[in-house]
Amino acid sequence: MKKIPVWIDTDTGVDDAVALLVASKLEEIELIGVSAVAGNTSQENAFRNARDVLALAGKKEVKVYPGAKKPLVIDLHTAEYVHGSNGLGGAQIPLSDAPVQEKKAWDALYEAAKEYEGQLVVCPVGPLTNIAIAIAKHPDIVHMIKELNVMGGAIIGGNVTPCAEFNIYSDPHAAENVMKSGIRVNLFGLDVTHKAYLDDDDIDAIASFDNPASKLFIDSNHLLYESRAKLHWKGVCEHDSCPVIYTAHPDWFKGHKCGIYVETQGKITFGKTVSDLYTDFKFEDRHCMAFMDVDRELFSQKIIDTYRQF
Question: Which of 10, 189, 218, 302 is least surrounded, with the fewest CB atoms within 10 Å of its CB?
């Protein structure tokens, strides 16, 4: 079976760690590189966490590259209230002893895109700062990436404001540049990721494996458990695993072609992913897919199966 070459760009927080672990066990993909960006936590934490999670997964050979330490224009605002001071909810895992990469994320991504000649799938699961910088510095990269499977945005609603989702809100200027670049974008916003959750039975199954990966899951999610109780969620949403699992199993998700832009000027609507999905008016540029539904049973079982393998 020919594997799909995948690059993950991550602000390695709690659900990012799950996505990295899932990527390490999906038979359909080959994880060829990872880049770290500031978002859920500092870039330094994200860089360290990505390295350490990959080491935990037995994937020390996958190189991790440092990226942007702040958004393009606005100040950095992290999410310690969900991801803790270290990005992993306070959970501690062994430090990776893999060689430390110093090449910048955008240059490493460009080299990978050239090497894979239009077949590289990029899964950004944090703010889009690194991707925007790669496009600005290497404009021809837009012809070298097969697609961007992005966790971010929301066609309806938001989670940091009534209309904006955290990853896009954290660097809307970068997101707008990426959306306008012409690269095919598959957007996994809150519309679908809120349906991609693990319920109590799923969490109990992961805990029962009693291995280092399942321990990380349980130890890192305690802040999310508290949020779940306050907000009456059905379970713990695994936002960042959506684009990764979609890459291997696209038939598990349902989406619609649309145009998407990002609001960077409005006060109330700042960071909104503006779509023409539910309007009579249609943008001329409609190269995006907004995903709205997922087969939760297959999705959650894939994550459970991932933890069973450690």
Answer: 218
